[in-house]
Design brief:
This protein is of the alpha/beta class. Helix content is 38%, strand content 14%. Strands 3-4-5-6-7-8-9-10 form an eight-stranded parallel beta barrel, surrounded by four helices. Helix 1 runs parallel beside helix 9 and helix 2 packs across helix 3. It starts with 10 loop residues before the first strand and ends in a 10-residue tail after the last helix. The structure holds NADP nicotinamide-adenine-dinucleotide phosphate. The site of NADP nicotinamide-adenine-dinucleotide phosphate has 29 residues, from strand 10 and helix 9.
């Protein structure tokens, strides 16, 4: 019999069969570099085996240093950790993809990543300015490249063996369907905001039917208002099962078949967030049917501008 405490070790097979992804993951969108490095080490020490970073977060160097130090201690090996990074909007032109990918690997001090994602479906004006704006402050997009053009460049990277799997982030169901229909390599992972206020059931259903893992970011609601961690349904379940609201939300996300990503700068919370146990079926139902609020915390899907990164960063 599987123990409820084994939930934290859940692994989801990827459709290219290259690897399986641990469901419970740690994100590194932390503004302070010193805090990023400490948190990444604390996450690995607590048991997290998925690390999520991105060119745009500017945390790849710190994540790379933290991994190197932990690997050098010898308790955790590179092959035990599933590392994801992402291609930024200014590098969507196919000829820019490989150099951007190589630069990410160099910052991470790695020979390969487990997953490479297109960070958003929006192509921005190519160049070194990550947030290109016109004189009126409007984002300058790049109409000269499609999401499929960029996807084909990622397929090339996977074929070369430089990343074990490829996927999409901040996409709509229609965009995923379009890529699945046109691609030679299907996305292994679709990475979107998802939690009880934005459950994305339709997208999850499509992904599960198509053998795609749905990775759910902001699984705890990103500390934004209205506070998901203070939702009365979540709090009541936490009291009943003797867990914290964060543990309830992460367990719910894993049990419904998604791969939640959470982030914390605090070692005690990082340990708390790995210490999840399976919820009883009635609690799963209560979260699904008893929470009626609908909130999207991150507006990145509308413009490609990252909602959780302050302008100018
Ligand atoms: N592709 C995209 O567009 C995209 C966008 C957003 C995020 N992401 C990824 O997803 C990751 C997770 O997203 P997120 O930062 O929104 O995750 P989250 O876990 O929903 O929110 C993090 C916030 O929750 C707090 N927190 C964490 N554990 C807690 C606990 N046990 N009790 C109370 N508060 C707790 C943290 O505060 P403290 O740090 O003070 O503990 C932090 O303010 C990111 O790091 C990033 O890797 C991707």
């Amino acid at each position: 019999m599987v123990s409820p405490d084994d939930l934290r070790y859940t692994k989801l097979p990827l459709n290219n069969r290259a690897t399986a992804m641990p469901a419970l993951g740690f994100g590194t969108l932390i503004p302070d570099p010193v805090a990023t490095k400490h948190a990444t080490k604390a996450a690995l020490e607590a048991g997290f085996r998925v690390l999520d970073t991105a060119e745009r977060y500017r945390t790849e160097r710190e994540v790379g240093e933290a991994m190197r130090e932990v690997f050098e201690e010898g308790k955790i090996k590179r092959e035990d950790v599933f590392v994801t990074t992402k291609l930024w909007n200014t590098n969507h032109r196919p000829e820019r993809v490989k150099p951007a990918f190589e630069a990410s690997l160099e910052r991470l001090q790695l020979d390969f990543v487990d997953l490479y994602l297109i960070h958003t479906p929006f192509a921005f004006q190519p160049g070194s300015e990550q947030d290109p704006r016109d004189a009126n402050g409007n984002v300058i997009y790049d109409p000269g490249v499609t999401l499929l053009d960029t996807w084909r460049a990622l397929e090339g990277l996977e074929r070369e063996g430089r990343c074990k799997a490829i996927g999409l982030s901040d996409v709509s169901l229609e965009q995923v369907q379009h890529i699945v229909e046109a691609a030679s390599i299907k996305p292994a992972v679709v990475h979107v905001e998802s939690h009880p206020y934005l459950p994305e059931w339709e997208l999850l259903n499509y992904c599960q039917k198509s053998g795609i893992v749905l990775q759910a970011y902001a699984a705890l609601g990103h500390s934004s208002e209205p506070k998901l961690l203070e939702d009365p349904v979540v709090i009541a379940i936490a009291r009943r099962v003797n867990k914290t609201p964060a543990q309830v939300l992460l367990a719910w996300a894993i049990q419904r078949g998604t791969a939640p990503l959470t982030t914390s700068k605090t070692a005690a919370r990082i340990r708390e967030n790995f210490d999840v146990s399976a919820l009883p079926e009635d609690a799963m139902r209560e979260i699904r049917d008893g929470i009626k609020s609908t909130v999207r915390f991150n507006a990145v899907v509308e413009t490609g501008v990252p909602g959780f990164i302050p302008r100018g960063k």
